[in-house]
Amino acid sequence: MCAVLVATGLAGVLPARAEPTAPTVTWAVQPANPDGPDGRRWVERTLDPGEVVTEHLAVRNFSDAPVVFSLQAADGYLTDKGRFNMLPSHQPSVDGGTWISVRETVSVGAKSTRVVPFTIEAPADASPGDHPAGIAATVTSTGGTVAVESRVGFRVMLRASGTAVAAIRIDDLTATHDRSWNPFSPGSVRLRYTAVNDGNVAVTGAGRATVCDLFGLVDAEGPAVVEELLPGGDRPAEAHVGGVWGWGRVTATVTLTPDILVGDPPDAEIRPTTTTVTVWSIPWPHLALMLVIVALVLAWRTVVRRRRRRLAGLLARARDEGRKEARRSELASGTSPTS
User: Fold this and answer.
1) For the whole model, what pTM was predicted?
2) Neighbours of 177 (CB within 10 A)
3) What pLDDT was estimated at residue 244?
4) Are residues 132 and 246 in the same domain?
């Protein structure tokens, strides 16, 4: 269950504590039927425009004294860390939170549970798709001059009937080649983008990130995942693709297929999306290695040429010396006295 400890938080069903003044209050709130908690994590309802339904919640007081809890419904949203939350009490709701009507307070005895009904009414002009909300029981405690509002609640996932559209848009896709400074090892490409829920239902996304290297001759790929997105919401996302050498032009593509988070509408429209970006990567380590290799080859060729020239010079001098010696021998033989 999505329960909460602070004025703006909804998390798992754990008891909450409101302390600054005595005595300590500990409580939990859960979806219920008229007889008590029914084991649901949250409430999910699909309604036709104008339809009214009744649901129940159970407030469990674990404290040693009776407590009067304030009850409240509000629009739901996702925090920057991707956790579900509901608007604070001072911020008016404009969507799913306005569909819910619940009594303002409930008194729960020590170590007791109270079941409270609440109604959900879809507006006559409700647009198809999800309208997330939350409902919570609140205790306000005062410490000095500061009032602390603590609340515990759960999601109420409301959906208006009609065509469910699951769509994720990819904005601001960028690719960065993280090269390996080992010239004999490829690097990786880091893809960053903003995933935007362009549909009308809550979704997650899954797909592939593909990188084409060496002008399309070499492909590498890795997974692309997007966590929960509510309709109209967005969140930053990343994908990493290894095995990329980064020789010049690098083309990166992200393909995502949305998956509806709640329910499985038979007539839903699932809209995959693909976005591509091209960057240029200069492989400095490899160029440096090539320059070193070229320099070594040129140096080797220079040394070989010099050795050949030196050897050729020695051979030429040896031949000249041989010719001169032969001439001297001939001359000496031609001028010697006969016996």
Assistant:
1) 0.75
2) 21
3) 85
4) no
